[in-house]
DNA sequence: CTGGTCTGCAA
DNA sequence: TATTGCAGACCAG
């Protein structure tokens, strides 16, 4: 006997949604109902093994029940958006599975189910109806099994005619009569007042139907019950009608349609399940035996001859992964394992003991532009090759960087992770195995990523900015920043003495020795021994951060000493000792610029982080004196964008007032102050200017009145007033920021000037704090990200022009809005102009970009 | 020895 | 109850 499985989709999704904890994919789409639904479906398929499956949905349009009874299902809460957004996805899922979906205007899913169930049973099918709604029990019949979900969605209780009668002692049809009498709160079916489940069953068991009950009211005991039955006769009949599931919805050729089975669209199903991050479901639908198992034939190349055979025997496209011997020192990094594939093969070679001939092979391979290379996370490899005098040509695509452009929020872009993310396969094994197995996925990854990048409109961003930037950064990192070790040692001694003296003073004031660096011990001294007022607490105890100490400084002389001690030990450990440990054999520091870390598109810098060298306070700023040019005669040039983020904001918002200010090269903070405080430019005080500056900063970050108030030390109300006036003066900024939030809410992401995408799952959160964060991200990311786009363009252009013009000056550092170059003395003027030109003309905005260049003998002096 | 927490540096 | 990062010190497990 053929089996038909009918899904009461609305009911099941509701069940799953409320039974399972919230679950989202990486884009913030809720998936818990989908997950529960698909697992339930899998279980049913396993248990029943149906020949056909159909899914019924409710339509939004009112049904005949609503039309006849205005209050039908009234009082039902509106479906939360976290659930409703999952409906289209489930429909897509079912469609790809080949399941027929039925939803008909004017009928509920129940009616569709009833009709299909009865029709199919009549035609000799064994029918299974799965639902979370007990109403459907009235459909139970000889060949119709109604499966009701129990606790959650994993288990079901099954009823056919016999089991139903056995349990309830009425027939399934009589169950409608029961409902007519008792009503149904959730559907707002009234029934007869005073008649509950017990009485209803009792009456129907005795009289068989609502009609018969009503004809025999006289013989029923109980005065009140009689009265109610008498008074609500019509309501009882009507309720029965409402509770009756239709079994005669007009369906033309429904059975033929159901039997006309469609195939599962495996490729698209896979894609959808990967997108939903539902690997476990995917595995069940597409078992590995179903797919051609990826044949991974891993070959070890044991000498340079074998390497040569793979790399040089023909012109081809090569997929490359590698591992390096990590070291904090650039000079000590080398290639450990080199893995190459021409598509399906995987060949690796242990580079540690490779002879010189091996590097000749690599040189011939990498410098041949007809041998096309796709490299996963190429920069470290390029750096090592470049150091050995090998250029890299014919390099077309970096799968790590491309993956970052598609989703910048991943914690890393190792091959195994992005294979899971974009292909859905799990690569098992340690780092080494992931590499060797992963290389065979690079071809498919490349194809998918190229398509995605094109679809997202990021061709220019990848091919003209990020990809060329790999070479620019590799060069900067290999060049490094020269260090004045003498001065550094002097600083070290100076700080060491200062720390000792300060510590002694603190011990004297505390009248005991303790670890000043331990917030726990310091807290004990300050708040218990010295009994200072507790300002703030942390999870683990008293807060002793800078803000707290600032508030306490009048209360005890120890506070200023502690603050000073903090500053000086911070500078000493992080910058003096930290930098000292990273000076390479060439006397330079070679920081790494990571291209795939930040969510906004900025670079980040590690080992060491050269993007947070102190500048605000003199004591820390001194650190900059140790950064010197490569050669004695050279100079350092620092060129920085003035207010690039506000200019980007002016451009993207199109606010005429702000655009004007930049066009006239006004001091934007003073101008803002004059607007917000309504005074002429000349009367702007420095306090006003710094408040305005804080507002401008706040706008860029996505502001709240609370934080602004805290920042500039006014009340929340005043801060709120500043913002209001600000938006009055720059009206288009307000509308622009709002439009960013709207677009993020609608699409789930925002884009920068170059279409760099940042997915913002937070904005869909039902937690209002998280959602508020999402809104700030939506406002900040396009601004910060566009500024990042612009300086990246400038970096490539500066790098290429210096090379093209045969100049010996070199780009060595980027600090978000600033480029630092090592400049030959006789090139200074030329390079200063060149850099300014390239930075200012990196992109055409509605406002000019202003670049200020400063040079000096040390980084400290470039001011 | 690792990972969590607190702290503080930059744009 | 402001965005993006990196890193050192401490400390519990």
How many discrete structural domains?
Answer: 4
Radius of gyration, CA atoms, in whole angstroms: 36 Å
CATH architecture of the largest domain: 2-Layer Sandwich
CATH topology of the largest domain: Nucleotidyltransferase, domain 5
Report strand %: 5-15%
Q: Which residues sit in consecutive blocks of at least 5 with pLDDT less than 50?
A: none
Sheet with the most strands: spatial strand order: 3-2-1-4-5-6
Helix/strand structural class: alpha/beta
Broad shape: globular
- Count of helical regions: 37
How many DSSP E strands?
25
Task: Please name the fourth-level CATH homologous superfamily of the largest domain.
Answer: Ribonuclease H-like superfamily/Ribonuclease H
Mean of residue pLDDT values? 92
Distance between the termini: 87 Å
The percent of residues in helical segments reads: 40-55%
> What is the highest CATH level, the class of the largest domain?
Alpha Beta
Largest sheet entry? 6 strands, mixed
How does this model look, in words?
This protein has 863 residues and is of the alpha/beta class. Helix content is 50%, strand content 13%. It contains 37 helices and 25 strands. The chain has a six-stranded mixed sheet with strand order 3-2-1-4-5-6, sandwiched between helices. α26 packs antiparallel against α27 (557-580). The longest helix has 37 residues, at 768-804. The N and C termini lie far apart (87 Å). The structure holds a DNA duplex (11 and 13 nucleotides).
């Amino acid at each position: 006997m053929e089996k038909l499985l009918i899904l009461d989709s609305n009911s099941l999704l509701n069940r799953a949604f409320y039974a399972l904890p919230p679950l989202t994919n990486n884009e913030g789409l809720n998936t818990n109902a989908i997950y529960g639904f698909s697992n339930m479906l899998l279980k049913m398929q396993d248990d029943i093994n149906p020949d056909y499956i159909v899914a019924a949905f409710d339509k939004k349009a009112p049904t005949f029940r609503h039309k006849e009874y205005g209050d039908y299902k009234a009082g039902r809460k509106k479906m939360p958006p976290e659930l409703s957004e999952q409906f289209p996805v489930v429909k897509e899922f079912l469609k790809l599975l080949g399941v027929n979906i039925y939803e008909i205007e004017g009928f509920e899913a129940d009616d569709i189910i009833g009709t299909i169930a009865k029709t199919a049973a009549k035609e000799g099918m064994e029918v299974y109806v799965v639902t979370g709604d007990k109403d459907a029990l009235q459909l139970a019949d000889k060949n119709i099994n109604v499966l009701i979900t129990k606790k959650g969605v994993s288990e079901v209780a099954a009823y056919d005619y016999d089991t139903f009668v056995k349990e309830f002692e009425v027939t399934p049809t009589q169950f409608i009569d029961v409902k007519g009498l008792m009503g149904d709160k959730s559907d707002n079916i009234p029934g007869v007042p005073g008649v509950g489940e017990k009485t209803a069953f009792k009456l129907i068991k005795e009289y068989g139907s609502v009609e018969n009950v009503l004809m025999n009211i006289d013989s029923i005991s109980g005065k009140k019950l009689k009265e109610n039955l008498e008074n609500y006769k019509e309501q009882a009949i009507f309720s029965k009608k409402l509770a009756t599931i239709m079994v005669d919805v007009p369906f033309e050729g429904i059975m033929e349609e159901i039997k006309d089975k469609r195939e599962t669209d495996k490729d698209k199903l896979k894609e959808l399940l990967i997108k939903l991050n539902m690997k476990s479901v995917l595995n069940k639908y597409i078992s590995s035996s179903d797919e051609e198992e990826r044949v991974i034939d891993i070959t070890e190349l044991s000498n340079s001859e074998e390497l040569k055979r793979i790399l040089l025997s023909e012109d081809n496209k090569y997929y490359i992964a590698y591992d390096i011997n990590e070291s904090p020192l650039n000079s000590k990094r080398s290639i450990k394992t080199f893995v190459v594939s021409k598509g399906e093969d995987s060949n690796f070679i242990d580079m540690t003991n490779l002879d010189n001939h091996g590097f000749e092979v690599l040189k011939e391979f990498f410098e041949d532009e007809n041998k096309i290379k796709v490299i996963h996370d190429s920069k470290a490899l390029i750096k090592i090759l470049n150091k050995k005098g090998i250029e890299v040509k014919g390099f077309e695509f970096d799968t790590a960087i491309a993956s970052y452009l598609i989703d910048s929020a991943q914690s890393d872009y190792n091959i195994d992770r992005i294979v899971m993310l974009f292909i859905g396969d799990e690569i098992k094994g340690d780092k080494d195995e992931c590499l060797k197995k992963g290389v065979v996925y690079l071809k498919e990854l490349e194809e998918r990523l190229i398509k995605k990048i094109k679809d997202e409109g990021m061709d220019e961003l990848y091919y003209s900015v990020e990809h060329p930037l790999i070479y620019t950064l590799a060069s900067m990192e290999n060049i490094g920043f020269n260090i004045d070790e003498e001065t550094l040692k002097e600083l070290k001694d100076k700080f060491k003495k200062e720390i000792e003296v300060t510590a002694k003073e603190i011990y004297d004031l505390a009248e005991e020795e303790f670890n000043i660096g331990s917030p726990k011990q310091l807290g004990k001294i300050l708040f218990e021994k010295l009994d200072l007022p507790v300002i703030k607490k942390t999870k683990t105890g008293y807060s002793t951060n800078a803000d707290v100490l600032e508030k306490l400084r009048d209360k005890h002389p120890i506070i200023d000493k502690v603050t000073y001690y903090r500053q000086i030990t911070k500078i000493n450990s992080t910058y003096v000792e930290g930098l000292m440990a990273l000076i390479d054999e060439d006397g330079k520091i070679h920081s790494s610029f990571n291209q795939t870390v930040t969510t906004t598109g900025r670079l980040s810098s590690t080992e060491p982080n050269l993007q947070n060298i102190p500048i605000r306070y003199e004591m820390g700023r001194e650190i900059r004196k140790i950064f010197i040019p490569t050669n004695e005669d050279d100079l350092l040039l620092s060129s920085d964008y003035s207010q690039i983020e506000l200019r980007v904001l002016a451009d993207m918002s199109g606010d005429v007032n702000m655009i004007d200010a930049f066009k006239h090269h006004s001091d934007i903070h003073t101008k803002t102050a004059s607007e917000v405080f309504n005074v002429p430019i000349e009367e702007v005080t420095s306090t006003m200017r710094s408040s305005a500056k804080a507002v401008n900063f706040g706008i860029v970050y996505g502001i709240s009145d609370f934080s602004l108030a805290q920042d500039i030390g006014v009340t929340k109300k005043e801060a709120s007033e500043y913002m209001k006036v600000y938006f009055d003066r720059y009206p288009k900024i307000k509308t622009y920021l709002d439009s960013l939030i709207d677009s993020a809410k609608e699409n789930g992401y925002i884009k920068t000037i170059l279409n760099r995408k940042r997915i913002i799952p937070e904005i869909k959160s039902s937690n209002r704090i998280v959602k508020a964060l999402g809104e700030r991200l939506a406002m900040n990311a396009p601004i910060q990200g566009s500024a990042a786009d612009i300086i990246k363009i400038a970096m490539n252009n500066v790098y290429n022009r210096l090379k093209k013009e045969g100049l010996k000056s070199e780009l060595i550092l980027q600090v978000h809005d600033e480029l630092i170059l090592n400049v030959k003395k006789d090139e200074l003027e030329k390079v200063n102009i060149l850099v300014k030109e390239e930075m200012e003309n990196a992109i055409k905005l509605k406002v000019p970009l202003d670049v200020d260049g400063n040079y000096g003998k040390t980084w400290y002096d470039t001011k």
